[in-house]
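Marked as duplicate of an earlier ticket. Keeping the data here for the record.
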Amino acid sequence: MVMSTVGFGMTVWSALIVVAAPKPMNIGLVETGEASRLRNKVAQGESKVPLSKTVFGITDQEMEQVKLIKKDIDNIAMKIHKRPVQVQKTSKEPDNVLGDIAYTAVQLAAIKRQLTGHGQRRRRGISLVHNRWPLGKPIPYTFDETSKRPIPTAQRDVVRAALAAWEEATCIRFQYFLPSSLPDSTYLNFTGAWDGCWSYVGMLYHTPGYPRSQPVNLDPSCFDVLLGVGRIVHEVGHALGLWHEHTRYDRDKHVVINWDAIKAGMEGNFAKQEGDNKGTPYDYGSIMHYVPTSFANTTVSSTTIEPMESVYKNSMGQRFKLAFGDIKVINAVYCADTCNGIPAPTCKNGGYQDPVKCNECKCPDGLKGSAYCAEPAPHKMDVCGWKITLTNVPEMTTIESPNSALVYQTYKEFQECNWLIQSPPGSKILFEFVPKIPTYYAMALTHYVSGLCIDYVEIKHTLDFGRTGQRFCGFYHTLTFPAIISESNQALVLFRANYPYNFSNKLGFKLHVQSVPS
């Protein structure tokens, strides 16, 4: 298979190898009720019901089952809100779509169980496993040419860039098929036929001999200039089997769901999912995480997801880069056997054997794989970032964004810097932002009105570098950020400039770094 190299941001993504492994496993959810009986019939080939003419991806019979389960969920919502729920569906999308996920009857039944408090507290069987695509084969995909709104040619390159992002980070490969020569297997069908940006979670099973089109719907709004590639990376993540990060079973240790603030009928987007996260920590910076205001009924509150650690609010909902945890889960499920027979290198700082470059490490963002995650990753654009060793206690140094020493001398778009800081054993590291340009801007890093950082400085001060750190951005004349102290004698600081346009006030940041007694 040949894949063209395409950019995701300023990162180059390229195809590498394909690996061999067995057929998909089915060790998933405990299926109960009519949804289970329907799924069993389909799996055994007894339900010979043609697929919907509009290619929903599931049978008409299952779609009817979905409608019944959704009515039950609306009744549950009425109890949550303690008032009648009138869901006004104005957009053109299939009945099995909630938010950005299209559900099978089995998956929707699981959500119903979670909302009623009857979910199974089990540590296996996430959709990643029981809906996994076949190992050792490229995942087929095509672009729908039959709908009234096919994806335009220029936007198809954005889709390819999103696929390339997953290819560079994992052993997964995608293979394009012309609509005239589709494979006799399940394939992803990128279409703009309906409203919204949505996908199924994991591979859909289809009865042999029947159509196997699995839609990933991308209407024109999905191709935002800043977030377009990341949004599609997110939807492909669903297709590979990833649920939303905020629906993890351990989410109550990290976020608070404000149920009263959720729009009526959207509660299913916040139901916990049963499953195993392969040992990865909850990550506010996952590309699968919602923004704090997702599906908010603003007459009640603008916040539906509140992080327990408020300093991570700026990290939630980012769509610029796959998080280390996103990549690690997919590699654990799809790529566990790709390096069989090749000794794993000794990876530092939470890294693990790269499933493609088996002699290197797959590292948390900011660290270098060929250096076994013990050195900072190379800079991009202007020279910046290095390993800093503080030999005394106390001892102080300064790090700052490049090209911003003078007023109107800005940092470059797509700038990347990485600083790995170490202090003497038994000490810790203190971080404190100081004014970049006194009497002018103390910090000037591009951000959204909602607070989500576009350009940011990220401080990884915990023991786990794999988890997204605290991100800081915005335009401030006075700094009010509290000082940050590392949990050990090592920390990592990243600077990322994702905004693709230059303007005069992109002045950056300045940070004092000091070793202090524990």
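See parent ticket for discussion. The two ends are 54 Å apart (CA to CA).
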